[in-house]
Amino acid sequence: MAGQDIQLHDTTLRDGARPAGRVLPVDDRLAVARCLDGLGVGFIEGGRPGATAADTEFFRRAAGELRLTGAVLVARGAARAPGASAATDPRVRELLAAGTPVVTLAAVSDSRRVERARGTNLAENLAAVGGTVRHLVRAGRRVLLDAEHFFDGHRANREYALEVVRTAAEAGAETVVLCDGAGGRPPDEVGAVVSDTLHGTGVELGVHCRGGAGRAVAGSVAAVAAGARQVRGTVCGYGRRRDADLLSVAAQLIVTRGAAALPGGSAVLGAAVAESAGRAVEVVSWQVGADPAGGGQDRSSASVLLRVDGVATAATASGGGAVEALDRAVHRALDPVLPGVRRLRLTGHLARVPAGHAGTAGTARVVASFADGDGRLDTVGVAADTGAAFLRALLEAVRRLPARERHGDGRTAERRPAAVAYGPTLTEPTLTGTD
């Protein structure tokens, strides 16, 4: 297990957007994808092209606007319809039109569901799986197959469930993900089924567990111990089916099993758990008001009092609005102490406060975008008001600066292989102030 590469596959933009009443506009989807990339996941599943206008628009805009540094964007679809051709099936064509280098293909692996859910027989279901995978591979796509309800299928008809895995792999799928559709599978059963499938097929496997009370996380860790190479889940377990919390899974793998080599940029996530050499930055107080020297224009002034490793630093600045003034004040306070922070430049922000909820704890949300040299950082802050929310977003960007950039002198922190030293460790203060 030690040294084994584990792939983290995030489905927040699909599963995390499913709860009733939760709608993610395309701008928010793009911002979430950039944040996920910053966390260090290897794959970001963006949704089903063609399922809704928003899904299709997301992939269209992502092709020109989304620049990922480590993760790979994934579009999701399904095997061709029974009796159809993969080349003419509308869903398969939408999947290819999304233009992502990797696609996830959903397929039924429970023999009892083939007739009920697909309206076909076992042989035709296998033909649809193999034919669709081959078509996508020939079109230049890397294919990940979701073997849906696999654990139920393995229990009911083991040989057929294994045959779905073999068929997909022989057609060119690089990984087959065993999905616990109903959720709540005990960890020992998850491990046993993964082990049996691995030895029965020799195919590279992943797992997508669900279930409350920590079962999804425990099942994911058990699957890795049994030989799975990819783990799927959502940030904080968001989703109506209690998906595995991918951050908790990563922490468990890094801390308890030594799996620190997480490809696709995930070594950064590992460093956040494995190393704590960053400097502590705390917001003591802040204030925003009208700029008396504004010359009749809409300008604001801001003052901040911060502590870096317990040492106070304060500054005041003005700008064309509360966010710009706070950004400048924080830079004036931190740049002399942490010179690398100078490279962060605010390029835009989006603030949202639900109507009638101003001043309520945790209701203001600010999505902030920063230029980081040649790169880009997108962060999110949530607090009672937009000023505090922006401060959280800004300090999260500071935290994500690698140590050599934070110090600003070309030094690099001593580190273990495949780890990246992080910037300052931020406290979770109650941000007091006025705006």
UniProtKB/TrEMBL annotation:
InterPro entries: 2-isopropylmalate_synth_dimer (IPR013709), Aldolase_TIM (IPR013785), Citramal_synthase (IPR005675), LeuA_allosteric_dom_sf (IPR036230), PYR_CT (IPR000891). It catalyses: pyruvate + acetyl-CoA + H2O = (3R)-citramalate + CoA + H(+). Keywords: Amino-acid biosynthesis, Branched-chain amino acid biosynthesis, Isoleucine biosynthesis, Transferase. GO terms for molecular function: (R)-citramalate synthase activity; 2-isopropylmalate synthase activity. Pathway: Amino-acid biosynthesis. Residues 423-435 have a biased composition (Low complexity). Pfam families: HMGL-like, LeuA_dimer. Gene3D superfamilies: 3.30.160.270, Aldolase class I. PROSITE patterns: PYR_CT. Residues 405-417 have a biased composition (Basic and acidic residues). The keyword Transferase applies. Residues 6-269 form the Pyruvate carboxyltransferase domain. Transmembrane segments: none annotated. Belongs to the alpha-IPM synthase/homocitrate synthase family. This is Pyruvate carboxyltransferase domain-containing protein. The lineage of its organism: Bacteria, Bacillati, Actinomycetota, Actinomycetes, Kitasatosporales.
